[in-house]
Amino acid sequence: MIDFYYAPTPNGWKVAIMLAETGLEHRTILVRLTEGDQLTAEFKAINPNAKIPAIVDHQADGRALSVFESGAILLYLAEKTGRFGPTGPRARKEFNEWLFWQAANQGPMAGQLSHFVNYAPAGQDYSHKRYKGEFERSLAVLDGRLSERDYIFESYSIADMMAFPWAFIAKPLGVSLDAFPNVAAWRRRIKTRPAVREAIDLYKDAQFSGSANAEQNAVLFNQSAEHLRG
Ligand SMILES: N[C@@H](CCC(=O)N[C@@H](CS)C(=O)NCC(=O)O)C(=O)O
Q1: Greatest alpha-carbon span in the chain
Q2: Which of 55, 166, 177, 192 could form a Cys-Cys staple with 110, CB 3.0–4.6 A?
Q3: Separation of CA 171 and ligand 1 centre (Å)
Q4: Crossing angle for the helix pair 125-145 and 107-114, nearest 10 degrees?
């Protein structure tokens, strides 16, 4: 049994997709981010970075084993199941490149763009423009990669599960995929998978509402070292 610490956000969806694709037995634990569930001592023992997603695998090696960071979780689950991951050292090297690329580039840039589109006080044009440009730049990288293949690798894999969620919500972030036709076709291809639909709908009703903005929610925004240390 795997405990899956989740909230209905792009980073949560990555792992929700993998769990739905593999059918691994798990129990989803909703982490109420606007209430600060991620800041409890119990959760920080699982993820010292105090963010979802995280898992605890109770059937790893005889002892409970926790994993945090979406890319690390996807690799762990790919190794555990022998599905959707790399086979052999060359493939592993390439998977690492694309997983790190997502975690260090597309993800954070899209996350910051989302902050300035959805939650920040108005009038921060420079910050908004910077992150929109960076997100579009990452889409251009992905579009190039997908120009000669249907998926990031030869077949659908954890690399696609990593990069799909932010591309899935490009439009609400104010970015049209018209300029990225390969990404648009790839997004359509992935979106129709039953496991992906299931994951995107998981706890959909618990998505942030308009009240989760930077001025009103002191739990989720304006974080600091003290905030983390509690
Ligand atoms: N690099 C992390 C990012 C995780 C992340 O940013 N999670 C967000 C939700 S999408 C979160 O838990 N935010 C809560 C907070 O910042 O307090 C990963 O890929 O797992």
Answers
A1: 53
A2: 166
A3: 21
A4: 140
At 134-155, the pLDDT tens digits run: 999 999 999 999 999 999 999 9
Ligand 1 center from residue 89 Cα (angstroms): 29
For 174-208, b/e burial (b = at least 16 CB within 10 A) is ebebeebebbbebbebbeebebbeebbebeeebeb
Give residue 88 CA to ligand 1 midpoint distance, Å: 30
Question: How many whole angstroms from 51 Cα to the centroid of ligand 1?
Answer: 4
CA–CA distance, 54 with 203 (Å, rounded to integer): 16
Low-confidence ranges of the chain (pLDDT < 70): 209-212
pTM (predicted TM-score): 0.96
Q: Alpha carbon of 181 to those of 17, 107, 173: distances in Å?
A: 23, 20, 17
Name the residue of 51, 162, 203 to mutate for ligand 1: max ligand atoms within 8 A of Cβ: 51
Rounded distance between C-alpha atoms, residue 39 and residue 33, angstroms: 9
For the chain, list the domains and their CATH numbers: 2-83+200-223 (3.40.30.10), 89-191 (1.20.1050.10)
Q: What is the pLDDT of residue 212?
A: 67
